[in-house]
Design brief:
The complex is a heterodimer of chains A (138) and B (247). Chain A has 4 helices and 2 strands, in the order αααββα. Chain A has 138 residues and is mainly alpha-helical. A two-stranded antiparallel sheet of chain A has the order 1-2. Helix content of chain B is 34%, strand content 13%. Chain B has a 5-stranded mixed beta sheet with strand order 2-1-5-3-4. In chain B, strands 6-7 form a two-stranded antiparallel sheet. The chains are: A mainly alpha (138), B alpha+beta (247). At the A-B interface, α1, α3 and β2 of A face β6, α2, α3, α5 and α9 of B.
């Protein structure tokens, strides 16, 4: 017989509690986890926005000016500010969790977590600085 | 410091009660007492019908895991004085069916554990005369942390994925599979791959990370699962590039 979850061959009458739909509101670590997962939506939004920007750039100067004008609307400024915070949260949690998934051994011992997170942060800073220089340096 | 503390304990009699309820007991608040001592006090002096699992009293056997004030804890390591002035709520481990009072049904976990094949698998056993399989301290060190698991199931009680999807293999079973995968004497990682690299296995895990936080033996099951995700992804790429290669 195929095993079925929760089925016990000789059951005493056991009591099973259903997990609440709002389980993620019961503790801060759970809520932080849900926020971390939810941040993916904002990452996706930034991807869509970037593709949009490239598409309007291809359509010519007038279309691009229109795109920039649209970006200046209060709703989009607010949305992008919130998105930026979520994307930063996404990146920080990602880098902090990276050492958990990577068990690198050096000299017979497991490499300390900082050895994996630090290069990630340095690379992030370097790329951000380079982009800032290209965008703002003109 | 008051010399008594209130213990709110889940009571459930499968033949009498429709659902579990709480019963409060006043127990002596002694600095050297843990929650398990208080439960034993209730059973010995107040109400002999109170049922709960325990054995070693020293964090080795893994039987006395319960929810203490909503958190999965080994009751032999949860001091009453840390919860003073109380009350302390003691409930059965979350995400498991309650058989009676504080006792949960762990059959589901035992099924999952045996499916993960947590034992040394050899393609060919060498004859006894050739002696034992040798291992260096460095080789031992790669999996030793995962071998500390005592099957106390606190990680299952902390895992919302297991709570919502009872088919999920769960933290301890995967960590123990990984313990054998990383053992230099083991040759069974190929056999475990199909069971572990599955939507009910490692890919069911969304890395909440609470399993690692509640583990009383610092096993880090969340780490074990993420590390195995990396291994399984590499195996998948390998099987894509070299479909004729043996597992």
């Amino acid at each position: 017989m195929k095993p079925v979850a929760g089925y016990v061959p000789y059951p005493p009458r056991a009591f099973r509690t259903r997990v609440s739909t709002y389980w993620w509101l019961t503790s801060w670590p759970y809520l932080r986890f849900i926020l971390r997962e939810f941040s993916s939506v904002f990452v996706a939004w930034f991807v869509v926005l970037t593709l949009w920007q490239i598409a309007s750039l291809i359509r010519g100067p007038a279309a691009y000016a229109g795109f920039l004008e649209w970006l200046r609307s209060p709703f989009l400024v607010a949305l992008n500010a919130v998105s930026f915070l979520f994307v930063v949260f996404h990146a920080v949690t990602w880098f902090n969790l990276a050492p958990k998934a990577m068990a690198i051994r050096m000299g017979g011992k497991r490499a300390p977590a900082l050895l994996i997170t630090a290069p990630n942060y340095v690379a992030w800073l370097a790329v951000s600085a380079a982009l800032a220089w290209i965008v703002l340096g003109e | 410091m008051a010399d008594q503390i209130a213990l709110e304990v889940t009571r459930y009699h499968p033949e009498r009660d429709r659902e579990p309820g709480l019963q409060t007991y006043e127990v002596p608040l002694r600095p050297e007492w843990v929650v398990l001592d208080a439960l034993n006090y209730v059973k010995d002096k107040v109400d002999g019908s109170l049922s709960f699992r325990w054995s070693c009293r020293m964090g080795i056997c893994g039987s006395c895991g319960m929810m203490v004030n909503g958190e999965p804890k080994l009751t032999c390591a949860a001091f009453l004085s840390d919860y003073a002035p109380g009350p302390i709520r003691v409930e059965p481990l979350k995400h498991f069916a309650v058989i009676r009072d504080l006792i949960v049904d762990i059959t589901d976990f035992l099924h999952k554990l045996s499916k993960a094949k947590p034992w040394l698998i050899r393609k060919e056993e060498k004859p006894l005369a050739e002696g034992e399989y040798l291992q260096t301290p460095e080789q031992l060190d790669t999996f030793k942390q995962f071998s500390m698991c005592i099957n106390c199931l606190l990680c299952y009680a902390a895992c919302p994925v297991y709570g919502m999807d009872p088919l999920f293999s769960g933290p301890a079973a995967i960590a123990l599979a990984q313990r054998y995968n990383m053992d230099s004497r083991d040759q069974g990682s190929g056999e475990r791959l199909d069971i572990l690299s599955h939507s009910d296995g490692i890919w069911g895990c969304t890395f909440v990370g609470e399993c690692t936080k509640v583990c009383p033996k610092n096993v880090d099951p969340a780490g074990a699962i993420q590390q195995y995700k990396l291994t399984a992804a590499k195996e998948w790429v390998k099987s894509l590039l070299l479909p004729w290669g043996a597992k």
